[in-house]
TrEMBL record:
GO terms for biological process: DNA strand elongation involved in DNA replication. Signal peptide: none annotated. This is Similar to POLD2: DNA polymerase delta subunit 2 (Bos taurus). The keyword Signal does not apply. PANTHER family: DNA POLYMERASE DELTA SUBUNIT 2. GO terms for cellular component: delta DNA polymerase complex. Belongs to the DNA polymerase delta/II small subunit family. Residues 37-172 form the DNA polymerase delta subunit OB-fold domain. The keyword Iron-sulfur does not apply. It comes from Cotesia congregata. InterPro entries: DNA_pol_a/d/e_bsu, DNA_pol_D_N, DNA_pol_delta/II_ssu. Pfam families: DNA_pol_D_N, DNA_pol_E_B.
Amino acid sequence: MSEFSAMDYGEIKIERKSIEFEDFKKFIIGDKKFDKQYSNIYIARLRALKNILENKSKEKWGQYQVKTISQLGDDNDDESEAEKLVILIGIIYKHQELKPSILKELSDELQLIPQSSRSNYSSEKDQLFLEDEMLRIKLIGSDLNHKEMVTGLICGVLGYQSSGGTFNVKDYCVPGICPQASECSPLMFPSEDKILVLLLSGLDLSGNPDSLHYQLLSEWITATMETILATRRFDTLLSEIVSTSNVILMPGQFDPSNHSIPQQPFHPSILPLSFRYKSLYVATNPWIGKIGSRILAGSSGQPIEDIMKVANLNEYSPIDWLEKTLYWRHFAPTAPDTLAAYPYVETDPFIMDECPDIYFVGNTNEYATKCVIGDQGQTIRLICIPKFSKTHTAVVVDLLSLETWPITFQN
């Protein structure tokens, strides 16, 4: 059970309502074996989404045949372009010269020039390839936006084999949004009530001195007005919050958890004060679960940040890339290529099997939200949760209406 607050500011009193909570435990790592090749996760990803894309391709380009790369024949000059068109389904590989390379990292030992740190890996020399379980082919064509594509994306392409063994792409499709299980189950409370969830990201207490922002945050959540000593850090702050409210805590990029995703839950010894309370639930990053009748999913920011490094499209904001991963049906498509990930073998847990009602990303520079309506009527609320240490802002979500708004704690 999980409890969330509805506050009466007139009398500064708090009312707690109980609501069901479930962690899908999708990203919990069982046997920790790191001696496997990363190619296995790509094969698992392709096999899991191939049938979905075949159906999607037939729906979009019904008259054309789905082939493997090995089934592509030699060029036939007597055929028209329309007669040559076929459908290929595979994994996108984006060749980028500026992408980090372990071979380049060895340059220090060879007394060569080390590779410089970059905020993005994109350049005009980037090339796209499509791989299936057997072969790889280079993709060309003006109908394919190279910068929108990232390594690890499973997609279908319509086109024809051209000279030089390349594939000229005329159109492409992605898996699309997961089907939504059903409409939100009957309301547990009268419609005039609200069931609120507070989304908070980027406290960064290790690198920031305590300030009134954190005090105001704690007082607002706990509905108290008591003084917080300046020397308290995260455990003390969190213990005060969990004493009155249920908290789901996900690790972030610089937190004491494993570096590769999925990051595993915090160990109890890290937060001894807070772990005394059953109201604290430690989760993975990324995470997906259910609160009441709503499915929530999201990450602390690394997957979206890495996509932005690979693509380097200034006109695309984090909320745009968050929406694209929804249509790509994958939480972290650039893992394990440029984003460190556990070497899964049989399955790829980052594939979206359930359609979330609320899909969030943390540690962004600013608050943003968007409501996405899928082809089958799916309704998903996208939320960018700003870094609290920079913006002093958290996000409130109403589980019933999916309405969302920021709340800022200023001195």
